[in-house]
Amino acid sequence: MNLDLFLLVAAALFSVGLFGALTQQSIVMLMMGLELMIGGVILAAAAIWHYIAPASSDGQVLIVLAVTVMAVEMAVGFAVVTALFRHREVDMTDEAAELRG
Q: Which residues are 26's β-sheet partners?
């Protein structure tokens, strides 16, 4: 496959994620935007690594590690959002910012 196509898809994923992260008020939608951005970066890294060294498995291990970290981050983030919603019934970023103190 062509590297340009993979990088175009990765840039599209990152752009959609950035738009979602900057425009949404819901904490869950903000997290989804961040995950799309991370997914775009991971896709670009995997495509570049495959283009540079297709026979090496080091890049595959690094990508699997990054996807694992992304899944753990998402699980912890949803746990925090769920606890915040159960305790204070807050699901918007503006309301969550007022919880300091």
A: 92
